[in-house]
């Protein structure tokens, strides 16, 4: 006998929210290394290198280096990290697209302070040159920063970027 289980409204809402997050799961950062830049007894400042896999382009990984503030505030997530970041994206496997890409879209965002500052990685399609251009920058609620870094991944011969 088949029975249908119905979820309570709160469980249904939680399940729907979790399902919405699945496409963004691949965009989480993976810290692959770091160096200390300023020793503190409560936790050193450091430069971290993180890998971000493009969730819509299998075979492309972006490496972002950025400063992380240590100390008590850094440990608690209350410190404001500096706005400088550097990016290098590379083809790390066969390129496959999960679907057509927008001309420009956010690939990843991560907060750099408790409320006000966010790091962005944006993908821009350069259809004329058949390349994906990745830009990293940070913004603030009150005022952003013009500090940025850019890199590009040329598509292999015979691979065309599908556009929306």
UniProtKB/TrEMBL annotation:
Keyword presence, Signal: yes
A GO cellular component entry from the record: cytosol
InterPro entries, sorted: Uncharacterised_CreA
Pfam families, per database record: CreA
Keyword line: Signal
Extent of the signal sequence: 1-29
PANTHER family recorded: PROTEIN CREA (PTHR37952:SF2), PTHR37952
Full protein name: CreA protein
Organism: Paraburkholderia caballeronis
């Amino acid at each position: 006998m088949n029975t249908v289980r119905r979820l309570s409204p709160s469980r249904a809402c939680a399940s729907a929210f979790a399902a919405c997050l699945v496409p963004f799961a691949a965009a989480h950062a993976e810290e692959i290394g770091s160096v200390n830049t300023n020793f503190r007894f409560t936790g050193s400042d450091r430069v971290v290198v993180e890998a971000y896999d493009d969730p819509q382009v299998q075979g492309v990984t972006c490496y972002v280096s950025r400063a992380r503030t240590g100390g008590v505030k850094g440990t608690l997530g209350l410190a404001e990290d500096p706005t400088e970041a550097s990016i290098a994206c590379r083809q790390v496997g066969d390129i496959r697209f999960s679907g057509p890409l927008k001309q420009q879209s956010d690939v990843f965002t991560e907060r750099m302070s408790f409320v006000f500052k966010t790091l962005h990685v944006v993908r821009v399609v350069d259809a004329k040159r058949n390349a994906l251009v990745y830009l990293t920058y940070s913004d603030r609620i009150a005022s952003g920063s013009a500090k940025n870094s850019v890199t590009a991944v040329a598509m292999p011969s015979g691979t065309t970027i599908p556009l929306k």
